Amino acid sequence: TFIVNYLTRKVPAFVAMTVGILISALSWLILTAGGSTPLVVAALFVLAMGEITLSPRFYEYCSRLAPPGQQGLFMGFAFLPVAIGYFIAGPLGGWLVRHYGEELHTPNRMWFVVTGVGLLTTALMLLYHRFVKPAAVEAR
Q: Mind giving me the DSSP string for the chain?
């Protein structure tokens, strides 16, 4: 964590967040090659690298969105995507396991869908930055 944070300290928060999301998304492709222990460990390592790149900068970015004196409120809202993901991931994950594992007997293919969700997230982040980004974040 310290090494990745040190290496990305001069990278703008938005760029670090987006690259972290992309790394995390692509990590799941490792599991399309199989479910052996080395592949699972490799996928988790790459996922962790993406998460380490993303997480600290996410909270920095959220705090910069806040008007002065409201950073705590905005930091609380930073957990909203986690809550939304909680309600979506359970049903989606269950469907993926049932469909690709039990019905099609090709469980490795479900990781393409998981990667697709991450790639969609990356694309939406880039669209947000292109069309919506608040000027307050860029000014700080």
A: -HHHHHHTTTS-HHHHHHHHHHHHHHHGGGGGG---HHHHHHHHHHHHHHHHHHHHHHHHHHHHHSPTT-HHHHHHHTTHHHHHHHHHHHHHHHHHIIIIIIISS-GGGHHHHHHHHHHHHHHHHHHHHHHT--HHHHH-
